[in-house]
Specification:
heterodimer, A: about 200 residues, mainly alpha, elongated, B: about 210 residues, Rna Polymerase Sigma Factor, Chain: A, Arc Repressor Mutant, subunit A, 2 domains, 11 helices
């Protein structure tokens, strides 16, 4: 049984008729059956022969010693020698760059963000709006100073938690609760922080 | 010679006659001498293969060392269903391809112009005169450069077949591709080399006929 390797070895001899008849028949039979060997020409075999004559490279002397040192080095759990530049280093630089850009963007957004301020960042537009309309901040302050409307029924009096009065459903008027302490403001006694009367009104 | 030394010497000489598979089996049982014999057998072929593939002697030695370290650490992963040479070449090939991918090397630099290590690669041939030797060296360098220009799959297949002299079946196992693909790659790689080397050393090729 001829293999492809045998065919390659004997092809040049076959080409020059330097082989026995039996071997020639076997090689021809192999070539008939093997597609890749049919494509094989004497020129390609010459290329092979030329490659086989190339010098066999060898490692520098002391290879075993360097290997033994490295085996010993790694068996002690020490890290391998780092190369000057590798993929992990590139990834680190990339991560650093992305982090720096993200930091700058976040800082810019925090610096430019004004809660409740004008939506436009154009100073010229903001000035025009200020000239045409009253200052929004002043108007806002006025709104805050207005006394809110309170439900009279929820007003309580002193520490007794009694309602000061109630709204009459039929008339819609607010009626004060009958209480002996209820009196006009100018007739009310002045009391200290403990609730005791310190002077009587005139 | 002491008895111990003689016994050790006999052991060493007997190890040289062992099959690769027997050596790795012995190493799996804890025999470190068997591992040393494996290193002795494979350091040159592996270095030649990796160095032709990468075109870089420094990294080639690094990768060959890494290959042996992987064998050392993962010795129990080898099972006798495959040839040991296939296993160790597969490790070296994968490491070399990883290195190639990492560096994205497209143009490998020449082996023959590496300065101080050049002496180690030269074969002493006293019969040739200086002129012929220079001519031969230049032609070899041209061939190496043309090999380096091949794309990675063709280059790998051609190196394993025509420089390492491995069988097609072994190459198929190492590269993990079908047998027909290996043969096709080898032939196509050779054909490309033949085209490029057509005008280099024609007379030398004629001499081989």
């Amino acid at each position: 049984m001829i293999r492809c390797e045998d065919f390659e070895r004997h092809l040049l001899d076959l080409h020059q008729g330097r082989i026995s008849v039996e071997l020639q028949q076997a090689l021809e039979e192999h070539r008939r059956l093997c597609k890749s060997c049919r494509e094989l020409t004497p020129e390609l075999i010459q290329v092979r022969q030329r490659l086989m004559t190339l010098v066999k490279l060898k490692p520098r002397p002391g290879f075993e010693m360097r290997l033994a040192r490295r085996l010993q080095f790694e068996s002690q759990g020490r890290p391998r020698r780092q190369r000057a530049w590798d993929g992990s280093l590139a990834a680190n630089w990339l991560a650093f760059g992305v982090g720096a850009v993200a930091t700058v963007l976040i800082g810019f957004m925090v610096f430019t963000y004004h809660p409740g301020g004008p939506t436009s960042t154009n100073p010229m537009t903001a000035d025009n709006q200020a000239q045409q309309t009253p200052t929004p901040k002043v108007k806002k302050a006025q709104d805050v100073q207005e006394t809110p409307v309170r439900n009279p029924e929820l007003l309580v009096k002193g520490g007794e938690n009694l309602p000061l009065g109630k709204v009459d459903d039929s008339t819609g008027q607010f009626l004060l609760t009958a209480d002996k302490d209820t009196m006009p403001l100018n007739q009310a006694p002045v009391r200290d922080w403990q609730g005791q009367a310190v002077s009587q009104p005139k | 010679m002491s008895i111990n030394n003689r016994k050790q010497s006999e052991d060493m000489s007997s190890l040289k006659e062992w099959l690769d598979e027997d050596l790795i089996f012995s190493f799996q049982q804890g025999d470190v001498e068997a591992f040393n014999e494996i290193v002795e057998r494979y350091k040159n072929p592996l270095y030649n293969f990796v160095c032709r593939l990468l075109g870089d002697p420094m990294y080639s030695e690094d990768i060959v060392q890494e290959t042996f370290i992987r064998v050392y650490r993962n010795k129990h992963r080898y099972h006798r269903i495959a040839r040991f040479s296939t296993w160790i070449y597969t490790i070296a090939s994968n490491l070399a391809k990883t290195e190639l991918r990492r560096r994205k090397v497209k143009q490998f630099f020449s082996i023959s112009s590496k300065g101080s290590d050049e002496k180690d690669y030269d074969l002493p041939d006293r019969s040739l005169d200086v002129e012929k030797e220079v001519d031969r060296s230049m032609k070899q360098e041209a061939v190496v450069k043309e090999i380096e220009k091949l794309s990675s799959p063709f280059k790998e297949a051609v190196i394993l077949r025509d420089m390492q002299d491995l069988s097609y079946e072994e190459i198929s196992d190492i590269l993990g591709v079908p047998l027909g693909t290996v043969k096709s790659r080898v032939n196509r790689g050779r054909a490309r080399l033949q085209k490029r080397l057509k005008y280099i050393g024609r007379e030398e090729m004629d001499d081989t006929l």
